[in-house]
Amino acid sequence: MSKKMIEKEKHISVGTRPERMDAKEKVTGHALYGTDINLPGLLHGRVLRSPHAHARIVSIDTSKAEDLPGVFAVVIASDLPEADDRTEKAGESTINYKFLRDNNLASDKVLYVGHAVAALAAKSPDVAQNALELIEVEYEILEPVLDVRHAMSDKTEVLHEQIRTDGPNGSGDTPSNIAQHIRHVKGDLDKGFSDADVIVEREFTTVPVHQSYLESHAATAVWGMDGTLTIYSSTQGAFLARRQVSELLQYPMAKIKVIPTEVGGAFGGKNPTYVEAPAALLARKTGRPVRVVMSREEVILGTGPGSGTAIKVKVGATKLGKITAAQAELCYEAGAYPGSPVHPGAMAMFAAYDIPNGQIDGYDVLVNKPRVAAYRAPGAPQSAFAGEQIIDELAQKIGMDGVEFRMANAASEGTERLDGSLHKSIAIQEILGVIEDHPHYNEPLDGPNQGRGVAIGFWDNWGARSSVEINVNSDGTVNLISGSVDLTGSRTTVAMQAADVLEIPFENVKSSMVDTDSISYTDTSAGSRTTMATGLAAVEAARDVLAKLKAEVADMWSVSLDSVVYSKGVFGTNERKSENITFADLAAKLSGQINGHGNVNVENWAGAGGGTIVDVEVDPETGQVKVLRCTAIQNAGKAIHPGHVEGQMQGGVVQGIGWALYEGYQYDELGRVLNANLLDYKLPTSLDVPSIEAVIIEKPFPSNPYGARGVGETPIISPAPAIANAVQQALGKRIDQLPMTPTTLLDKIGVI
User: Fold this and answer.
1) Average pLDDT of the chain?
2) pTM for this entry
3) Among 2.60.40.10, 3.90.226.10, 3.30.365.10, 3.20.20.70, what is the CATH number of 8-31+463-602?
């Protein structure tokens, strides 16, 4: 299809701010979430989880639980068929099916506190909970490996004997906790540092951070008499969930139907399956529907957070403000199984800059913690926390304004990144220009112990596959269905693009997400792809509708197809100027028997840059940091729905504030999580977050009909380093670890 940019004057819906289609259903409590599924004969599933971070399973005795009245079935790892040792992309992350099987139900070893060991179904949640306590598991306790640096040592206990380091020069010879070592090299690193007048080198650490979605994981499974398995799942991708269940059960995808429920938050954490396969096993054994819902403690213990990291950074620059070389070592916790976001972390680290010489070494490291999952720009907040502080410190050392220094080194279209990729359309310089001119950056601070920080970031986004179908009704309204799970209002933004092409009122489009039987394959809602890629599929489907309607008009008027024109909801012909018919009248004549299809595989997309300006006030006696003011700037390409873009930006900043000041897993020496609830796991509240100004830049990406870019990930990248830079300005001390709690700050300034 033609990728021709749709002319601005033709925009009917795009760029406006209609009400979200799902808003009333959700705010009134009518929307159905995973825990709302209540089928006749429903049984309640629960999962037994390991109390140990690292142990061999010697034996499991489920007999007492099975004998308890009200218990209908118990399953363990042996109830799952063997899975292939094969890795595939899953949103912003990857999934190895052998490890996914073991993560769903542990086989020979448990690898973190909270690792699933067995599951059962009972007539009530209370009976299920009582039955869990009757399952007897004998463990041989092993030494837990909890620190990423310690895990990399040759003398450390190995989690998986079969894993060898996959490195730049091939596979290693001995078992290792380093699953992968990646290396990106550009130019001559030694020469770059020899050309530098100033070099800054520091180490940084971060801890695992959970996505903290409000809705916990939930799945309900039921088997039909024909052997069809239906799963209601709180998932980011119905087709991805179907694929995982098919692999885990070794069951044909054609006989598995996944119905996505509404999702109460995900941020990347609901790409992996945790409860779908156990629910399906229990439902098959019992012959009744089984629903498994995680408690909040289970979500924190048993699902994937973002990686904890240990990062070394070294950057050199001339006195005139040009970066000559950059080097980084990124050690990312994968958790119990390989698959940390070290690749995107390495991509994003210096992506906003044009650096002639550089090297990045990244390590995917196994530790006895939950296998990490994607979390909004996975890997990038951690690497930006380190990189953007070094950039700020370099500017200070050469006596240059931080924004001016960044502008002097900003990447542009065609810049080669350290990972070897070339930037497409990019707007880093424009973002810095907005920061430089913004009143927030130029107004003086008005109190003691205050600081102002700036940071920028870049995320590469994703394209992938999406499918949309549009059915035209006889009254001129249309029904649009897509395979994309709606996480952020994408029903609305996708419908807006279809309405724009069809040149009909937005109110005349009904947009729905559907199950895996009702639409062709669509990739998961992740990677900032949905509004852009599924929107492109909607454009395709709408163009298909118009093409078919034009053919009907040509036949009806006996004119050539090329003569038929369409504008502002009215069909006409250049052969007879007096002939015209509206979209609605034509739909009535055709009795609504017109539909359009859009199936796309987007292989050409553009990333998005953004930045944060933040003011803080630090109490030097308590170490408390208060965020006073925050401005977020981001290139949206084209804001399909400006209100949604602003919401994404503000939400990302709030999560970034959480990363910076409050959030993180706390472990004891045995690998037990000390804050596995939302009372002890601190999140920012409305009292901790100022009003966040969102400034949208629109530099269109030419290959998209509207110039759209994904916007969901970028806003979380720069808040933490911006806050760290602001704290440094307020205290005169550089903070090298996240979260920057009061205890951490007091330690840095020598109070404790």
Assistant:
1) 96
2) 0.96
3) 3.30.365.10
